[in-house]
Amino acid sequence: MRKVHISHAKSGDVLAVDLFAANGSVLLSRGVRLTSGYIRSLAQKGVQYIYIDDKQTYDIRPLPLISATVRQQAVKKVYETMTALIEQKKLLRRASSLDLGKEYEKVFKDILDYLLKQENLLINLSDLVISNGYFFHHSVNVATIAGVIGIAKGYSPQQLLDLGVGALLFDIGMTQLPDGLWRKKGELTEEEKEIVHRHTYLGFELLRRQRNISLFSAHCALQHHERCDGSGYPRALSGNEIHEYARIVAIADVFDALTSARYHRKQYSPHEAAEYLSAAGGLLDYELIKLFLSYIAIYPVATTVLLNTGHIGVVSQVFPGFPLRPVVRIIKNPAGEELKSPYEIDLRKEMNVTIVKAV
């Protein structure tokens, strides 16, 4: 398979990866042959990239960090919790009856079990989500990325659970804001920004009233918008005043937000998002960023890339410790002509060949 921008999709292309709806259900299944109507509808729903199968790349398959089943169950739980809070507008004093702790411990244990089975922990999020489902899938992605960082840090099982539950529920305070505000696609006014900033306190208050959620987890909701230079909110904390779990969640939040399809801006490639994080050392924890970047597939499997030779290829294999030197399957020559016999080059061995950009 290979990843292509929706504008380059053609009628007859075969979808290679399931497309998910907001609640985690499959909206469009892999194997479906795309029509112009499907392509137009996907573009309208905010999908910017899709994965397609073709004869040149049919055997290239990204290895997901977590299984589709684990992901769907996690998104379903987040969806049910968040929509209940949004629709019913439960008062904070009633939220203690939800008992989210045990439910979300089980959700994250399933994610964690899958992560711990991975031989090579490389962050390669290839799931396709419509923009309307971003809020729910984002929480699962943030928890998954946070889990990878926690494992890399050598956290104990209990620390990993506290981090994971906090990461799954870090944005729960958004459910207590006026519907029209947090769903707004345009620029917020200064008054609206002040209201949105309250979601950190609201989330913390909601979580700290839970019987089985630790205060460490609740601080992910309170502090994930704090910044190391003191420029964040709600309390303008700096450096180690911010709990490490919240500093981890902040990095995962920014990375997944940048690499996700949104209506109001372009979708960053993992390489572009990694460059953004590298330049954000004053805002986010620099040591955690360095650790995180060592676990990112900068050019994930199935990414179409342009080489400095002018050839077009598709990443077929990535390696821990060599984020910029994957194996690339060459599918087009410098003139843009498709090769009848694609071939692969290992950039760890071909040091004079480099990736210019993802295309």
TrEMBL record:
Q: What PROSITE patterns does the annotation carry?
A: HD (PS51831), HD_GYP (PS51832)
Where's the HD domain? Answer: 135-258
**Residues annotated as domain HD-GYP:** 113-308
Q: Which Pfam families match?
A: HD_5
The Enzyme Commission number assigned here is 3.1.4.-
Q: Which UniProt keywords apply?
A: Hydrolase
Is Flavoprotein one of the keywords?
Answer: no
InterPro entries with a match to the protein in the record: HD/PDEase_dom, HD_domain, HD_GYP_dom
The GO terms describing molecular function are:
hydrolase activity
Q: Does the keyword Hydrolase apply?
A: yes
Tell me what this protein is called.
HD-GYP domain-containing protein
Tell me what organism the protein belongs to. Geobacillus jurassicus
